[in-house]
Amino acid sequence: MMENHGVTTLGATPAEAYHRLNTLAAEIRRVMQAEMLARAAGTEVAYLAPDAVDFMYRNARELQYASRDRQAPPM
């Protein structure tokens, strides 16, 4: 994200879109911090393999909104 360039998030409700925006901002902060710490330590950040990311994008709706019969039983 670039300052003063804006970002749009969508969701089924305004609350979901707001949560997604906050999640995006938090993830950007985490990645920036990881990159800075890795650079200071002389190492690199280990990111997910491209095929794992592709799988998550292809199955995002099912992973996020699993049907009741696929969810873990209550504890």
Task: Explain what the structure shows.
This protein is mostly helical. Helix content is 56%, strand content 0%. The longest helix has 28 residues, at 14-41. It is flat, with a radius of gyration of 16 Å. The mean pLDDT is 85.
Sum this structure up briefly.
The chain is an all-alpha fold and 75 residues long. The chain has helices at 14-41, 50-58, 60-64.
How is this fold's topology laid out?
Elements: H1 14-41, H2 50-58, H3 60-64
Keywords:
single chain; 75 residues; mainly alpha; 3 helices; 56% helix; 0% strand
For the record, give the distance between the C-alpha atoms at the N and C termini, rounded to a whole number: 39 Å
Order of helical and strand elements: HHH
Q: Helix proportion of residues, in percent?
A: 55-70%
Beta content comes to: under 5%
| Largest sheet geometry | none
